[in-house]
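User: Hello! I'm new to structural biology and keep hearing that structure can be predicted from sequence alone. Could you demonstrate with Biotin carboxyl carrier protein of acetyl-CoA carboxylase? Please show me the input and the output so I can see what each looks like.

Assistant: Of course. The first part below is the input, the amino acid sequence of Biotin carboxyl carrier protein of acetyl-CoA carboxylase. The second part is the output, the predicted structure written as tokens.
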Amino acid sequence: MSKPHDSDVAFIKALAELLRENDLTELEVSRSYGEDDSLDVRVARQMMAAPAAMQVSAPVAAAPAPQSAAASAPAAATTTDPAQDPGAVTSPMVGTVYLAPEPGAANFIQVGDNVAEGQTILIVEAMKTMNQIPSPRAGKIKRILVEDGAPVEYGAPLVILG
């Protein structure tokens, strides 16, 4: 951003107030004013319960689809911390994950699907806004680490690409 806009300061203060009022831990926003002028904001606060919440969600994330015996040995090594897997696609925000574009529709992806870079792989809803999460690169879906409608934290692993 070349120079701060007065409206940006008010916008950031409003985000901080939303964070406090809604008992959120994080908000992340990107907006563009033109070709050379944009604003990227991440407002976060640390909470004592946040690490416990990450540990609670780990068993849900570690429940992969059934695999063959040959594939289970490498998967066992990655289940301890899927976020460390080089193919991990992580959540860019705090929100609720949806695997399909709308209730009753087919999921964006299935284990074994090939995806193209930029292809929508799921949605994270944050503050009533549906944010499409694109694949960062082309690859094959090895694991889906989240369940439809599950809450996710910033940086939580969502999918493993092979």
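User: So the tokens describe the shape?

Assistant: Right, they're a compact way of writing down the 3D structure. Reading them back into a model, for example: The chain has two domains: 6-44, 70-161.
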